[in-house]
Known about the structure:
It contains two helices and four strands; from the N terminus they run ββαββα. It has helices at residues 53-67, 95-108; strands at 20-25, 44-49, 77-82, 85-90.
Amino acid sequence: MFDEDTDPNHQLGRPGKYTSKVGFVDTRVDLSNALDTKGDISRGGGVEVWPDHKSAQARADYIQALTKDIQATVMREYDYISGSYLLRITQTLSPTQAGAYEAALKGLGG
């Protein structure tokens, strides 16, 4: 879990940004191909909690627009939204593997 001093994106708690954030490592990811930043999505994934669904959707749209033309898989991701939760999963995982995370998110009823 990050706080305002450790958030690598420097958005945590700032006006109109996410209210909490956690990153995690998925052991199926080859970390030698991941970015060497604690909590980086390329290591597995993360969850950002936004003030509302609209804000979470805007963030996901921004990320997808920013990364759509990037060839490096390590910089791309799957984004899933449930309520105000944005689940971000590295695209180095297969669609089936990422889909299991999506199913878990939906199971929480976000």
